Structure formats: C-alpha cells, structure tokens
Amino acid sequence: MAVVIVVPLVVAVIISTLDLDQYTFRQWLGAPFVGLANYAEALTGSDLPHAVWVSVAAATLATAVALPLGVVAALTAHNRFPGRGLVRSIYLIPYVLPAFVVGTVCRTILQSDGVANRGLAVLGVHGGLWLNGPKSFLALVVVQSWSAWPLVYLLTLSGLASVDPQLHEAAALDGADWTAKLRHVILPLLRGPVALAVIISLLHVLNGFTLPYVLFGVPSPHDVEVLPVLTYVESFQNFRFGVSSAMAVLSLLVILVPLLAYLRAVRLDLGEDEARR
Q: Do 151 and 97 meet the contact criterion of CB atoms below 8 Å apart?
C-alpha cells in the first residue's frame, strides 16, 4: 500500500507545488517552488472546472442508467431456471471486455457511416455525428452505461444470494405476492449492496481514462473533455507537469466526496444496528 499508493501520492503533491515542465524536468528536484500557484492556474486558467462538470455529469447519468439495468438483470438471473449459467455469462460480457476493446468497437459503430447511423436511417432517424459535437456527450453516457451496469448486476446478485430463504418463506405464508415481496423484503435488504454498487460505479466512471481516450481520441471534443483525459493532455502533450499534478490532486478531492458519503452512510447503518441490539 505504501509503495503503490502513498509514495506516488506524496510525489504528486510535491510536483504540484513546483514549476515543472519540459525545461525543468531533468532537474525536477531543483525546479522553482511555486506553492499553490499551479492549483490556482488549474482552477482559473484551464478547462478543469468544465472537465469536472463533464466527468461528474457523465458519471451520474451513466450510474443512473446502469443501476436499474443491473438490478433487473440480477433479479432475472437469481432464481434457478434452465440456461441460467449461460444467461449469467452473457450478462458479464460488458464487464470482462477490456475498455480498449469496448472503446474501439463503439468508435467503429458510432462513425458517421457506422452501424448506429445505418440502423437509425432504417427507422427514418438522422443520426449525425456521435464522436464530435453536442451528441458526443450522449454517446459517452451510453457507452459508459453499457460498460458499467454489469458491476451493479454482480453486487446486486451477491446481495440476493445473502438474503435468508426463510424470509421468502415467511412472506409467502403471509400471502405476499411477488411484487409485495420485492418491495417490502428484497429491496430493503439490497440497500447496502446497491449503495456500494452506486459508489463504485461513480468512482469507476469518474476515474475512467481508457474508454473516453479510445472513443474520442485526444484532444477530446470540448463536450466530452473528462478530467482524466485533460490531466493526461496537460502532462504528456503540453508537458505542464506541475499543473497536471495539481489537477490530479484536485481530482482526488472530487473522488473523495462520494466515498465519504458512502462511509458516513455505512457508519449510520452500523449505529442503527447496534441500537437495535
């Protein structure tokens, strides 16, 4: 943990306080110290606020789409039926495919003469440009949703497996139909796994670099300029290592918001459980 997480984080914080670029990189320990100037420039002199907005909006919308898809998929694959193993395997396809493969395939599909526009043309709908312009944000959300929902499915399925079968039997003896059992027994018990799935999905999409990088290339269209790609461009194309490190540290603060919210919710749940005992 120290080597993989703590040391790189400390180095990033140090670099974020230096005027480090392609001219001072060879002697980066002797680069001029600028304090918080890189953070001020990242917040006021770059596209960081816009990138944060795009990343948060895309992650929120993608998670909102992935959540019902994953829960419904878990409900359909929980009970035993012929071919359940095959169905579960099919559900996992978006999860096991590398992001590079997903981005490459979706980029081909969303070309102006690709499968998506040809299919829409059959329906009498003009698709237009999906990889540039205003529609690129919608394309990003759709692709990220397709890639994210199996994670919700897996965590929800694990939550369903942990539900005590006696609760199902008790609900059936009380005359509860499937809808009532789902609403009053199953869904309340899935609150923890589903909340964890939402947090992990948000963090996964917020941190996602490969998918938007492959899907739109660099420099990305302004409408889909997400935070990880902007940080990459500042580092390895503009060679502004100090500013990019400041962006990386600020992105960590953005990621901490949903994580701390989840940890607080977990503490409240544990406190309620202790109070009941």
A: no
Write down the pLDDT at residue 108.
93
Query: Closest Cα partner for 15 from 4, 31, 1, 26?
Result: 31
217 in Cβ contact with 100 (< 8 Å):
no
Per-residue model confidence (pLDDT) at position 175: 66
Query: Token pair 């499915």 is at which residue?
Result: 153
Tokens of 171: 């609900």
CB 34 within 8 A of CB 242: yes
Spans of all domains in the chain:
2-276
3-state secondary structure of 240: strand
Burial of 63 (0-12, 13-18, 19+ CB in 10 A): buried
- The one-character DSSP state at 129 is -
- pLDDT tens-digit series, residues 36-86: 999 999 998 888 999 999 999 999 999 999 999 999 999 898 888 888 889
State pTM to two decimals.
0.85
For residues 108 and 164, the answer to whether their CB atoms sit within 8 Å is no
Q: Class for domain 2-276, per CATH?
A: mainly alpha
From CA 226, how far away is CA 206, in angstroms rounded? Answer: 8
